[in-house]
Every structure is written in structure tokens, then in C-alpha cells.
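Thread: sanity check for a docking pose with zinc ion

Original post by kr_44:
Hi all, I'm comparing my docking run against an independent structure prediction. Below are the sequence and the ligand SMILES. Could someone generate the full complex and paste the C-alpha cells? I mainly care about where the ligand ends up relative to the chain.
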Amino acid sequence: MRGASVLRRVLGIEHALIEGIDLEDDVVVVDVRLHKRQQLRCSRCRKRCAKHDDGRGRRRWRCLDLGSTKAYVQSDAPRVRCREHGVVVAAVTWARPGSGFTLAFEQQTAWLAVHASQSTVGQLMRVTWRSVGRILTRVVADGLAGRDLLDGVTRIGIDETSYRRGHRYLTVVVCHDTGRLIWAAPGRNKATLKLFFDELGVERCKRITHASADGAAWIHDTVREKCPNAIVCMDAFHIVKWANEALDKIRREVWNDMRQHRKRGRPPKDAKQRARQIKHARWALLKNPDNLTDKQAATLAELEAAGSPMWKAWLLKEDLRELLKLDADEAIDRLDLWLERVDESGLAEFEKIAKTIRELRPEIEAMLTHRLTNGRVESVNAKIRLIQIRAFGFHNPFALIALAKLTLSGLCPPLPGRAVT
Ligand SMILES: [Zn+2]
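Reply from moderator J.T.:
Ran it for you. Here is the predicted complex with zinc ion included:
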């Protein structure tokens, strides 16, 4: 057939003959036959095998559109009998085993899933998001073949992140030195994390020098059990997060008190305005002082003038955030003063944090001393949260993990036919 080699090139099909091309119901169908030497190979190990049967006859694989027209590659798909793998469908050179898409199609879909929105991928490639999930899982599995993300890792950050409603969680591990996601699995408990250390193996566990985490006992205990040489550090980010959460709780309490008061009658003259002010104080309280708008700064000043518990709480939160940035010695001194001030403040929410900080004192001092660059881990976690939002509809944590690895582990393939950039 004339132009066959052009078509092979366009479709990215190797070691096969183009037997024909046709238009059926507005769809291009390209008939293909594998070269003799590539026929009847096991799709798992690629060894030559005896033919078992014709399988389900001729099969179609979706390939990249030809121009704007949907296209399929069509070929025989016999089954073979492999000594090792039993009866399996024979391998083809243009698709992964078990996939109804060609390699180039899957490569482009994976690239797009990393760079574009769910609806863009769906519309452009004309596939369901569930199919995308399965494609990503296959592309990542291939990308990981002959490559070990855990090699050379010495400083790790371990965190948990929720996905989907119903409190389902992933445990994620990030390398502090490369800022890459190196491992993720569904679950958040010792058993899940042990899977990571099993994969790492005894020797590489010994080479772990630092591990940072969010203070959860299941993480700290497992690291100590598995990594004899690791210093366990607290993540600074989480300490500030606790303070922000406490501050927000206090704000809501004050606001609720005020509403109750109003219901009971005889509200003070400006009660309505004050309630609104407190409701809107949220962002002023949570923001860093440098980023406040004039209005937010004014809100804070009013809270101060009124001697509000929110003002006291805000000061405690800010001092904690600032002291964590200081050099270890100074930070530790300031932390002691901070704990004393919390005791005097009478703010129950902050007393809880003080208790936790006292319990995690060694990990916090290790964090201040060793200064792992947690910004990287946090940015990976923030990105995973964004990926989670895009991954709604996967119905499968492994598709989410695949998208996270494509995006954050350096596994994203280039577009078909382009060099890696
Ligand atoms: Zn085999």
C-alpha cells in the first residue's frame, strides 16, 4: 500500500504492516498486521509462545485522531500459551497489554492530564475521566519500570492528606532534597507507613538521617522503629496550623456568644455591627500582618482596643509563627517564654497547643536545629490537594496517586514525537 510508511510514522506503529485504511461511520480504521517475528509473543514477558486460539477475533485500539477524525488501529488479537504466564492475549507493539488505546494516545492523555483540566482532557481526547485514570495508572507503572524513586533518599517528609469526602486518606512521602513525591499509598496508619519502609529496605532505612512529620504518633513511632539513624523533626507548618485553628475556634466562640446574647434580648446598641465585624475578622486574623489590607488592619486595631480574647489569641499565633523562624537557640528561649504566656492567657485552646508542644519538645527542637526545608514538602502537599480536586471522579485512589506521581515525581512523559524537555 502506498503511503504505508507515512501512515506508520503518523500513527507511531512499529514492526507492523499497514494492510488498509478505510472510513467507517465517520471513523478511520487502519488495518494492521504485526511482522512475523513480533507475532505470538506473551504480552507479559514478550517471549515467543504457541498460539492458543484466536481470542475474540479482530480488535480495535483507539489511536490519535487523524486530523480531526477519530481513528482506530485494527488487528488480530490471538491468545498465546506462555510457560510462565499461562494463556494470555498476544503482545502488540503499539499498545500496552489490557489497554484499548495505543501508546501514543496514552502518552498524550497523560501529558494533558498533568497540564490541563479534567474537562479539557475529556473533550480533546474524547475519553471518560475513568478511562483517563486507568491510562495514567498504566503510564506511571511503565515509567517506574527500571527506575527507583527511593534511591539515594536520606531526608524525608511524611504527611497525610485526605481525598474524597468520607475521610479517606493517603500517606505521602517526599524527598527534602529533590522536593519530589517519592511514595504514596491509601491509608494513614502504621501498617501503611510500614509498606513504605519495606519497599525502602533495611539498608536504605539505615541511610535515612532526618524525617519530618506532623506530630502524629503513628508516624514518629514507625520512623523510630524502622530508621535507627533518623532524627525525627516536627514540621513547623503544622505548629502554625494548630495556632490558626485555635484562633479561629476562639473567634467562632465569641461570635456565637454574641448571637446568643442577642437572642436573649436587650442587645447592646452596636451588637449587630460587632457581630458582623467578628464574622469578617476571620481573614484579618489568619493572614500574616504584612499582607493585611487597610480594612483588616483596622479590624485588628479595634479588637485590640476592645481587649478582645481574639486579640490575645492573635498575638500568640503571630509570636509563635515568628519565633519558629529564628535561630535555634533564640527560638527555644522564646518558645519557653511563649509557653509561660499561654499559661497566663487563660485561653483553653492555646493551652491545648502548649501541652502538645511540651510533649513534642524534642521533635520541635530537632526541627529548629536541623531546619529541613519543609517548604518543599508543604508545596508538594498543597499541589496534591489541587490534584485531588481535579481527581474527583476517579473513584480510585491509585488513579489519584498516578496523577500525583506524573506531576510531582518527574514521571510525566513528553508529548508523542517530541523530545524530553
Ligand atoms: Zn510470559
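The pocket of zinc ion is lined by residues 42, 44-45, 47, 82, 84-85 (CB under 6 Å). Hope that helps with the comparison, let us know if your pose agrees.
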